[in-house]
Write a structure and sequence with these properties.
Layout: H1 4-18, E1 33-43, E2 48-58, E3 61-66, E4 79-82, E5 87-90, E6 92-97, H2 110-119, E7 122-127, H3 132-144, E8 151-153, E9 155-160, E10 170-172, H4 179-187, E11 193-196, H5 202-214, E12 218-221, H6 228-233, E13 238-240, H7 243-246, H8 269-281, E14 284-286, H9 289-297, H10 302-305, H11 315-328, H12 336-356, H13 375-386, H14 391-405, E15 423-426, E16 440-445, E17 448-450, H15 452-456
Parallel strand pairs: 1-4, 1-5, 6-7, 7-8, 9-10, 9-11, 11-12, 12-13, 13-14
Antiparallel strand pairs: 1-2, 2-3, 5-15, 15-16, 16-17
Helix pairs in contact: 1-3, 9-12, 13-14
Length: 462
Amino acid sequence: MVSMTHCVQASVLWLVLGLNCPALTHAADPVKSLVIENCSVFDPESGMMLAGRTVLIRGDKIVSVTGHSEKLDVPAEATRIDGKGKFALPGLIDAHTHSVHVLDYARVTGDEVLPLYLAAGVTSIRSTGEEIVAATLVARWAMTHPASSPRVFTCSPLLDADPPIHRDIGRGITDPAQVPGILDELQRWNISTVKIYAGTGRPIGKAIIEEGHRRGLFITAHLGAYSAQHAVEDGIDCLEHIWSVYNYVIPSDVKREPGYRGRLDFSTTLCESLIADLVKKKTYVDPTLAVFRNMILLPDVPEIKDHPDHALVPKRLRDFWPVYLKRTGCPQGGALEDRRREFAKFQELTGKLYRAGVPLLAGTDSPEPQCPPGGSMHQELEMLVESGLPPAAALKAATMNNATALQQQEHLGSIAAGKLADILLLTANPLDDIRNTRKIEVVIRGGIVCQPAELLKLVPKE
């Protein structure tokens, strides 16, 4: 078996060599001016689709968004897009991806799958816990290839107990006094997020939160030894995965017999108290329903195992997914009906969080098994709506909420003057049916018009 260290070194080497690979270079510069005329524009704050808008873009930024009654001087050289009957969304943001992990095992480099995200209208991704050198190289590739890549925001390695659970992407910490030095090092890599992982207990977790906040960093966590109640009290910014709420609302007296996780009652004082604290502290929750349904609980269900989105990913990755599932013991949870009930509970809790006022993010954990880059974001939006979110709320999670979590709300998350021109133009209204987010005519990334079919040609078949 190849060591994890060797895998990461190989990934970095292949990516460096790939930086001059013409097959993945999609040369294009932002047009001088671009105008989308007479389209409907989704406003994440109001949740409304604003009809009859014209969006003027110059270079990589939006200059103006005007209505019928407002005069607009369109530059003579502008490229015009007829938006009549079309619906413009801010570029989608996937708040939980991995640009190295899993891909590395499958001998796939991050740059090879980046066009999949962009073809699906995902114009930014947050890489949430990686080997920092390789992840930085993927982010640099994306920066220099905007016509074929989403923006990539990097994260710390998984800050964990020692030894870390994931030794390839984890960093073991044994003493709170180590935290400032570790964050000194990581900030030099221009990370956007710090991630606490499952083995970390409260003393070190609290030290990470406090030191990270002193530096203006966003702190998220996949919880385990550190309870949600304590993490929220200590000021954590975000909880990754619905597990990081669900696992801490199980009463101590519940009989842990087969299938019990699909029978939990969320009306208990324990659950209501945690949700109230999440609301009070304005703590984000990123449910990542896609990874629970597709990898952890139901990967053996035919409509999930054979989902059409999988056909777009490189064969190396598809072939590795069942290997990784076996390695990690998935599916988890016993009998199929018990697993279905457990996932239904995850969705029930997600809906309850939304109705209570907990701010939600939209992330997928792509490219974990059966969570394909790009496609799984549309699946996540569908599952959020199935959980009780109105389509507008699901879209806000994937746009403005995700932009705010990245501390990029001044640049991303809505179609507004002064923001970066990341837009997808749809042929049907996603407020009528969230599945319409898949009906993409063009994707605009920083003022560059990208055709999904052309982007898919850049993804290796094998």
